[in-house]
Structure formats: structure tokens, C-alpha cells
Amino acid sequence: MTFKFDKLYRLGAWGAAACMVAICALIALQVTFRLVDALLVLVGLSRLGISITGVSEMASYLLVGATFLGLAYTFVHHAHIRVTLLISRLPSAVRVWFEVSGLIIALVISVLLTYGLIGLARESLQYNDVSSGFLSIPLWIPQVVLAVGVGLLALALLEALWMAGRIAIRDPSSFREATSIDDNEAH
Predict the structure, then answer these.
(1) What is the pLDDT of residues 18-38, one digit of tens each?
(2) At 130, is the secondary structure helix, strand, or coil?
(3) Do residues 107 and 161 touch, judged by C-beta distance below 8 A?
(4) If you average pLDDT over residues 45-54, what whole number do you get?
(5) InterPro entries annotated for this entry (predicted)?
(6) Which of 159, 137, 123 is nearest to 9 (CA)?
(7) Exposure pattern of 34-46 as b/e (b: 16+ CB <10 Å)?
(8) Would you state the pLDDT for residue 178?
(9) What pLDDT score does 127 carry?
(10) What are phi and psi of 48, to 5 degrees?
(11) Per-residue pLDDT, 81
């Protein structure tokens, strides 16, 4: 399958990657500060006591960003776990309708989740909700990231549903489930 909004999904993947790099940088910096303190104590000097306040809080929000921004990309590149033990044994003409049904269910759930997350972010912005940690991060920021990630997944599901639906209506016997191997051959 060729997704028309693949560049958008890749942008989400880059955002997820940036979140992971930021997590690694924060943790590495915190470990480096602790290592410097330990070395100073080892040679008989006093600690510098430098640390980044709220590293775990920032890392947890960045992990949410990495997870949700990467949803659409992993879906279109067939990296999500799928249990196809039963339906893989069905004829193509039947299997395509199972695919369409599964995509409809996933799309409805993701659209409802996106709608709810947008409402939650709007409410957090309206009431100036902040996190209860050391940093008091405005909660609408991670909530918008969640909504964007799930919204991108909904768009990818809609595209996949459109393609599977066309096959199901036009020529169901030609349906072949896409795999990550097929995806690698396309690039």
C-alpha cells in the first residue's frame, strides 16, 4: 500500500525520534553531573551539586510524545503487532472483509480518542492546569502531542480503510495482506 500522507507520518516519526534523543540527552546529562560529583568526592574535593530538576517528569512527558507521535508511522510501515493466525488461513475474498472491519473499529476508536484528547487539552488550557511535579508544566502541551499522535494514526487508518475498501469492492480475491517485507521492497 502507498500512503499519500506518508511525509506527514514521517514528520510524526521525526518528532518521536526527537523526543527519544531529548530523553537520552537529559539522562546522560544527569548521569554526567552525578559522575562528576562522585569523581570530585573521590579526589577529596567537595561536590558541585549540579542536577537537573524534574528530569523524570520531563522524560515521562517526552516518552509519551515518542510513543504517540510514532503511532502512524509504525502503522503504515507494518510495525504494529498483528495477530493474524486465524484470518491468514481464510481466502483473500473473506480476509479483506475482516481487514476492513478491523480498520473500521480501529478508526472509530482513534477518532473518538482524538476528539476526547482535543477536548481535554482545550479544558486544560482554559483552566490553566499544570502538572503537580517540580516543573509545573502546562498539561495542554503533552495533551496536544497525544491528540496529534492519535489524529495522525486516525488519518493513516482512514487511508488504509479506503485502500482496503476499494480492493474489497472491486476485486476481493486479489487482496494480499501487506507486510514489512513488502514495505522494505517499495523503498
Answers:
(1) 999 999 999 999 999 999 999
(2) strand
(3) yes
(4) 87
(5) DctQ, TRAP_DctQ
(6) 159
(7) eeebeeeeeeeee
(8) 61
(9) 96
(10) -80, -35
(11) 80
Count the helix, strand and coil residues of the chain and give each as a percent rounded to the nearest 5: 75, 0, 25
The amino acid that residue 23 corresponds to is I
- In whole numbers, what is the pLDDT of the chain averaged over residues? 90
Average pLDDT of the segment spanning 133-141: 91
Angstrom CA distances, 11 to 14, 73, 113, stand at 5, 9, 21
Given the C-alpha cell 559522575, which residue does it identify? Answer: 35
Report helix, strand or coil for 159: helix
pLDDT of residue 186: 47
The pTM score is: 0.86
Amino acid at 154: A
Amino acid at 93: A
Residues recorded for the chain? 187
First vs last C-alpha separation in the chain = 12
